[in-house]
Every structure is written in C-alpha cells, then in structure tokens.
Amino acid sequence: MNLEPIVRVVDVRKVFGLVPVLDGVSLEIRAGEAVALLGANGAGKTTLLKILATLLRPTRGTATIAGHDVARAPEAVRALLGVVAHGAWVYDDLTARENLKFWATLSGLAAGADAVTTALAGVGLERAADARVRTFSAGMKRRLSLARVMLAQPRVLLLDEPFAGLDQRAKKWLEGRLEALKAAGAALLMVTHSFGRELGVADRLAVLAGGRIALDTARGSLGPDDIQRLYAAHTEDGL
C-alpha cells in the first residue's frame, strides 16, 4: 500500500452562522484503503463529505485530494472524485443508458457507447440499460449511481450511507464492488450508521463526535458488538 495519503484533512473547521459543526477534524486515507466514518445525526459527517466533494468550503484548515486543495483547485479535485450520495440522484424519465450519457456529458468525460455499456454491465444493469429509471427499485438506482462512478474510474470515492435501503443480496453485491474498487487502488470514505456487515469493506473506523475525530482505529477482527462498544465509549449516542 502506498504510504502517502491521497486524502488529507488537516484541522478542518466549518461554522454555519455561529454554530461550529466541524471543529478541528484531521483525517488521512491512502490509496487502496477504506475508512468508515461513524457519528450521530448532526455530527458533521455529511458536511465533511461535502467539503471533500468541493460543495462546501472549510471555514478553517485544509483538505486535499492527491495534493490538490479542495477550496483552491476544485476542478482538479472533481476530476479525481466519485460521489455516491444518500439519494440516488438519477433522472427517472431517462433510461439507465441515457442517464450515464447525460452525466458523462455534464462531467466532460469522453465516454463512448462501449464505455457506457461496460459500466452498466459492471453493476449488473446491462439487461435494463434501455428501461426508464422510474421502473427501477431502490437497489437498482443505487447500482446506477455506482455505474457513474465506474465510468469515471475515480481515485477517491465518497459514499453517504451506501447500503441504506438495500436488501441483503444487494448489500452483498455492493460490498463486492467496493472491494474491487479498493483493490484497484481507489481510496474510499464511507459514512454509515450501521455496525453490521456494511463495515466489512472498511480497513479503519473513525468516529466523529464533538466536531472532531474522537476515534480512528483499524477495524481488524472487530465484530459488530465491539464496534458498538467503541462507538458508545467515544460519543453520547450509542445508537
């Protein structure tokens, strides 16, 4: 594994009005590494993802992706990122294939028909490529969101509750896809509330509490009960 972090967050603070949401967050993630970020509702997990995704500017501190500052060089950062939001953010009136073509055009990707077909096949949607997305299940829409990521082949993948709303079969499928992306060298940051199999892909666990990273530890052989005890010990919310 490359020892140089591809994601580096240093003393990041974010204030909305007079309310500090993040208050000195520092975190590093290396290529081929997945970090699961846990925290209570309102802890600032999604705020941190938005800062890394260049959607918000930090009030103080720095965040970089492959050496590019997210605030000063947002276009360079976006070229390296894939984002899977809590919502699927797909267009229901377009087909799966049209969704990917439209997204590629907006993103400036030179994605031809073969690349789109390959991305859809990679998430198991090749047979539904020309179906309107309004007919898709929540799991299929999540797969289509991931197909956009595969089309871009990002170096860093940000995921907000990636397993939410999926059945066990879909969760197993997604876990396999994330493992494959990690094996290809992508760095993953996943926000999740679950202590179950959803954390199976994570190499490290980080707990965000009080505006800071209260715990950052290797997952190792930690089971769901171990993780919940660690989480409760570092937060006021044991979920």
For the record, the count of structural domains works out to 2
The CATH homologous superfamily of the largest domain corresponds to P-loop containing nucleotide triphosphate hydrolases
CATH architecture of the largest domain: 3-Layer(aba) Sandwich
Top-tier CATH class of the largest domain: Alpha Beta
- Class from secondary-structure proportions: alpha/beta
Strand content: 25-35%
For the biggest sheet, the summary is: 6 strands, mixed
Number of DSSP strand runs: 10
Estimated radius of gyration: 18 Å
What do the pLDDT scores average to? Answer: 89
Kindly state the percentage of residues in helix. Answer: 25-40%
Residue runs with pLDDT of under 50 for 5 or more positions: none
Tell me what the structure shows.
With 239 residues, the chain is an alpha/beta fold. It has 2 domains: 1-80 and 155-239, P-loop containing nucleotide triphosphate hydrolases (Rossmann fold); 89-153. It has 7 helices and 10 strands. It has helices spanning 45-52, 74-78, 96-107, 113-122, 138-152, 168-183, 224-234, and strands at 5-16, 19-30, 34-38, 60-65, 68-69, 81-84, 156-160, 187-191, 204-209, 212-218. It has a 6-stranded mixed β-sheet with strand order 6-7-8-3-9-10, sandwiched between helices. Strands 2-1-4-5 form a 4-stranded antiparallel β-sheet. Helix 3 (96-107) packs across helix 4 and helix 4 crosses helix 5. The radius of gyration is 18 Å and the shape is globular. 39% of the residues are buried. The mean pLDDT is 89.
